[in-house]
């Protein structure tokens, strides 16, 4: 087993320590870091973003060829790791022989830095993993409301600051992580989009924690991992094929979920009914086509699976506060002046 020791909260130092122990080629640009690894230990990459001095984002998108343990130990016992597993799994413990806590695919996890013990994170040999961690130094967070909330919720009531929370399955977060990875803008716009997305991921983690506490008090049940996977797949299918004339029965058969479970899942995952989700996908697809294609409005209406132009205009205006034609004219003016 390979052991990687991390002894700092500083993102650059973290990457330098990982590189010194795992190898690979490190590139740094502005506040972003990326370590490409392809050797006998691992294949893949570790990326990171410094959002503010107190908040950093790290993503392990990697396949380990041997069992690997990451240990976090530094003097600051007021730091918290907000984790999310997009693929594979992660085992966490305080101390090498402490209680093992498993973070499975689509689950959130919150781990504080122990005042007395190292935090261990175990990666299994032969498993491709995609783990995202937001590292927060609570006492130096710039936003006072966020600082107070983190202190009151995760630090003040914990013995020795040892907090382990494994949350329910959540697909909203994986969508935001994919959005973060697909940001293509450069310069200031890129920085603003990255920062806002990381804060949104953090907000969703905090919301999940709050909802889990509420559900525990009300004895509510959540969706299973297999159900979440089915919901993710069927949601992606709808996004890829908005033109299909969907029915709840068709989606139920294709996903293997009951109509009731489908509606419940879409409400949890997208905060929409199935019908609302399909409508929203069609409108967003249409907006993208108006900006990026030469199709006229009637052709776009047909492309997204609708037959009524007046109905399309109604739902488009409800979302974007202007008619499709007006929006298209504005895009054309921008193209001419660019």
Task: Spell out the key features of this protein.
338 residues; alpha+beta; Jelly Rolls; Arc Repressor Mutant, subunit A; 2 domains; five-stranded mixed sheet; 13 strands
Q: Helical percent range?
A: 40-55%
CATH class of the largest domain: Mainly Beta
Radius of gyration: 22 Å
Number of domains: 2
Query: Distance N terminus to C terminus?
Result: 56 Å
Extract low-pLDDT stretches.
Answer: none
Let me know the average pLDDT: 88
The biggest beta sheet reads: 8 strands, antiparallel
CATH architecture of the largest domain: Sandwich
Q: Structural class, from secondary structure content?
A: alpha+beta
CATH level 3 topology of the largest domain: Jelly Rolls
Architecture overview:
By secondary structure, the chain is of the alpha+beta class. Helix content is 45%, strand content 26%. The protein is built from eleven helices and 13 strands. The chain has helices spanning 11-22, 144-155, 172-181, 187-217, 225-240, 248-255, 259-270, 274-292, 297-303, 309-320, 324-337, and strands at 2-6, 25-29, 32-38, 42-52, 55-64, 68-72, 79-87, 90-94, 101-103, 107-112, 119-123, 128-137, 164-169. A hairpin with a 2-residue loop joins strand 4 (42-52) and strand 5 (55-64). InterPro entries: Homeodomain-like_sf (IPR009057), HTH_AraC (IPR018060), PchR_regulatory_protein (IPR053142).
């Amino acid at each position: 087993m390979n052991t990687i020791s991390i002894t700092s909260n500083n993102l650059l130092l973290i990457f330098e320590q990982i590189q010194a122990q795992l190898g690979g080629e490190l590139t740094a640009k502005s506040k972003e870091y990326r370590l490409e690894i392809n050797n006998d230990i691992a294949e893949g990459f570790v990326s990171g973003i410094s959002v503010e001095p107190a908040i950093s984002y790290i993503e392990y998108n990697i396949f380990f060829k041997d069992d690997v343990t990451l240990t976090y130990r530094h003097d600051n016992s007021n730091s918290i790791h907000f984790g999310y597993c997009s693929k594979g799994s992660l085992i966490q413990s305080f101390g090498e022989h402490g209680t093992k806590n498993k973070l499975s695919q689509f689950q959130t996890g919150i781990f504080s830095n122990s005042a007395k013990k190292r935090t261990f994170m175990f990666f299994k040999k032969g498993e491709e993993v995609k783990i995202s961690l937001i590292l927060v130094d609570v006492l130096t967070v710039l936003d006072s409301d966020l600082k107070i909330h983190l202190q009151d919720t995760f630090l003040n009531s914990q013995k020795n600051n040892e907090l382990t929370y494994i949350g329910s399955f959540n697909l909203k977060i994986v969508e935001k992580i994919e959005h973060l990875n697909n940001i293509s803008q450069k310069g200031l716009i890129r920085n603003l989009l990255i920062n806002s997305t990381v804060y949104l991921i953090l907000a969703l983690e905090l919301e999940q924690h709050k909802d889990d506490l509420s559900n525990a008090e009300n004895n509510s049940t959540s969706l299973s991992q297999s159900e979440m996977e089915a919901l993710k797949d069927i949601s992606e299918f709808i996004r890829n094929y908005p033109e299909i004339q969907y029915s709840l029965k068709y989606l139920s058969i294709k996903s293997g979920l009951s109509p009731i479970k489908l509606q419940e899942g879409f409400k949890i995952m997208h905060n929409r009914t199935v019908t609302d989700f399909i409508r929203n996908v069609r409108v967003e697809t249409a907006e993208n086509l108006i900006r990026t294609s030469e199709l006229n409005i009637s052709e776009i209406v047909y492309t997204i699976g609708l037959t009524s132009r007046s109905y399309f205009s109604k739902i488009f205006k409800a979302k974007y506060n202007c008619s499709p034609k007006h929006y298209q004219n504005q895009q054309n003016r921008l193209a001419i002046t660019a």
